[in-house]
Amino acid sequence: MSLIKKTEQEVQKVNRAEMTPVSRVEEKEDGFTLTVELPGVGEKDIELTLENRTLSITAENTVQSFKDHTLVLTEIPEVRYRTAFDLPERVDTTGIKAANKNGLLILTLPKHEEVKPRRIAITAG
Q: Which of 3, 58, 77, 107 has its CA 20 to 30 A from that of 35?
């Protein structure tokens, strides 16, 4: 690829696309970890909502532009991510925690205490 300056009319622009982000769910004794891939998305650009045990995630990436630069080529798409998860009854929705790290949204979904596995002691006698 050669670096040739093009006029703005020659630059191919991509409109914001809507995508379902890829995700992974892991279950542990005390809860679930939901990891959602959101490349190029900052904390301020993520919206998490919980309604009737449905966790909805909406996010948009931001492609930085500079006033004193002329756009020559853009292959980084501007994307709106949307997805939703129906949470099982055993998830304690009041304890959900979220972190955004290196393009990954990591949600911790704790289980209610009464559904966590526990060891029952046996007494002699």
A: 77
